[in-house]
Amino acid sequence: MRGADIQELLQDKRVIDAINKHLWIESQKAGYSIGIERATEEWVRLYAFGWMKYNMPEKYELIRERQRDVKVQGVTAK
């Protein structure tokens, strides 16, 4: 996922709520606050695509299509 896609995703209040929930859960597991930066990075890496597939299917398909195009170009360029 491109940086611009991530920035756009982070503008959605529902995403911020999901990240804060992830922060709380993982901090409880760890016994200390893991910090918002780590929680955000983990959530984006682990859950962003699944969240987008359910909540923003059009955006999800656009990003997946773009990724497929890049993979195909990478294979033909070799």
Overview of the structural elements:
It is a single chain. The chain has four helices and no strands. It is mostly helical and 78 residues long. The protein has one domain. α2 packs across α3 and α3 crosses α4. The radius of gyration is 15 Å and the shape is elongated. It starts with a helix and ends with a helix.
Descriptive terms for the model:
78 residues, 4 helices, mainly alpha, 85% helix
Mean of residue pLDDT values: 91
| Total number of distinct structural domains | 1
Order of helices and strands: HHHH
Biggest beta sheet summary: none
Strand runs, count: 0
First-last Cα distance: 22 Å
Determine the strand fraction and express it as a percent band.
under 5%
Structural class: mainly alpha
Categorize the overall geometry. elongated
Percent of residues in helices:
over 70%
Name the poorly predicted regions. none
C-alpha-based Rg, rounded = 15 Å
How many separate helices?
Answer: 4
SSE blueprint and pairings:
Elements: H1 3-9, H2 13-30, H3 36-55, H4 57-77
Helix pairs in contact: 2-3, 3-4
In short:
With 78 residues, the protein is mostly helical.
